[in-house]
């Protein structure tokens, strides 16, 4: 439930951007809470890189915390008034990346006069950090991948709506692109209820595959992580819950916070079957995720050697479900 509430917070980030008839930044008045100042300065610097001078001299700028709910959102901009308000309680729950695009989104309204746009690429990734307003159905759960190599494009698009689509918008990889002859098996486990493998020498390209039977009980969460305890990628499967979200999320965990990067509601028909196999492959500078041997998503190569691979299914109370079936786990080095 805690993860679902965090994801709901991310959804609510951009829902209120409106006009306040009573309050606004007076001309030349600059009043930014120190917690937001680094993000405002980053916004100014990123604009300068793209030929846009931003100094708020004429408009002024107010960015402040609210101690109460911000109209059900994490924050909003009073359009036309250069005044941004952020919910203080929710700010502490956001990852560094999410804080960054929250401020950039609101300054996109206040300074760049951007409205909401809800266009997506064919790979189901949002085209802009200006996503917001009314969303339909499962779209409310799709995160903005403001992270890694995708971040540069998203900032480009923020300052220029006509930015061409990036290479990664239609990039795909073949499951069989690495010959079996180039793989060296280093660990195999079979017929287990959880994985908790630690590595000390997995410093080069690698692949690990997991064949499993997903538990579709709404009381269970099934999660795979790989990396280290404090910095890792994850794939988390959610049966249908009280929030009517089901499917899986791919994301990054840093500094004790999760940052969702990709969501799909589909776990039933991937290459014609319910999801029963995960392949994670580090190769060519990326971490590539395949489900049922179908390419799904790619993310930046982890900077540090992989230290752990863990996969388990937990119940609502956090207890590990020993009924979870992992038929086979194999880790390989790629030559």
Characteristic terms for this protein:
alpha+beta, 16% helix, 335 residues, 5 helices, disordered N terminus, 16 strands, 6-stranded antiparallel β-sheet, Jelly Rolls, single chain, 2 domains
Care to describe what's here?
The protein folds into two domains: 2-168, no CATH class; 180-334, Jelly Rolls (Sandwich). The strands form three sheets. A six-stranded antiparallel β-sheet has the order 5-16-7-12-13-14, with no helix packed on it. Strand 9 and strand 10 form a beta hairpin. The protein is 16% helix and 32% strand. With 335 residues, the chain is an alpha+beta fold. It has helices at residues 2-12, 37-49, 88-91, 96-110, 149-159, and strands at residues 30-32, 61-66, 75-78, 83-87, 183-192, 195-198, 206-213, 221-227, 231-238, 247-254, 257-264, 277-283, 286-291, 294-300, 308-314, 325-334.
């Amino acid at each position: 439930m805690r993860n679902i509430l965090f994801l709901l917070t991310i959804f609510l980030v951009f829902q209120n951007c409106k006009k306040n008839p009573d309050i606004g930044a007076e001309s030349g008045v600059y009043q930014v809470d120190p917690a937001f100042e680094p993000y405002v300065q980053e916004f100014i610097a990123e604009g300068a890189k793209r030929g846009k001078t931003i100094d708020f001299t004429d408009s002024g700028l107010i960015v402040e915390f609210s101690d109460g709910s911000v109209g059900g959102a994490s924050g909003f901009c009073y359009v036309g008034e250069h005044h941004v308000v952020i919910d203080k309680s929710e700010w502490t729950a956001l990852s560094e990346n999410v804080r960054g695009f929250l401020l950039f989104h609101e300054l996109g309204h206040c300074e760049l006069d951007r409205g909401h746009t809800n266009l997506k690429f064919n790979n189901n990734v949002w085209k802009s950090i200006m996503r917001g307003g009314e969303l339909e159905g499962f779209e409310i759960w799709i995160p903005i991948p403001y992270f890694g190599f995708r971040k540069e494009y998203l900032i480009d698009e923020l300052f220029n709506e006509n930015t061409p689509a990036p290479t990664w918008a239609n990039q795909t990889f073949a499951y069989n692109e690495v010959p079996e002859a180039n793989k060296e098996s280093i660990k195999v486990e079979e017929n287990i209820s959880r994985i908790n493998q630690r590595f000390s020498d997995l410093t080069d390209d690698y692949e690990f595959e997991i064949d499993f039977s997903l538990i579709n009980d709404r009381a269970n969460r099934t999660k795979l992580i790989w990396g280290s305890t404090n910095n890792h990628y994850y794939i988390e499967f959610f049966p249908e819950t009280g929030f009517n979200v089901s499917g899986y999320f791919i994301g990054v965990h840093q500094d004790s916070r999760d940052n969702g990067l990709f969501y799909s509601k589909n776990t039933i028909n991937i290459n014609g079957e319910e999801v029963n196999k995960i392949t994670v492959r580090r190769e060519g500078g990326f971490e590539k995720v395949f489900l049922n041997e179908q390419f799904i998503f790619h993310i930046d190569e982890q900077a540090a050697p992989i230290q752990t691979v863990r996969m388990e299914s937990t119940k609502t109370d956090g207890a590990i479900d020993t009924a979870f079936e992992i038929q086979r786990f194999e880790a390989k080095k790629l030559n």
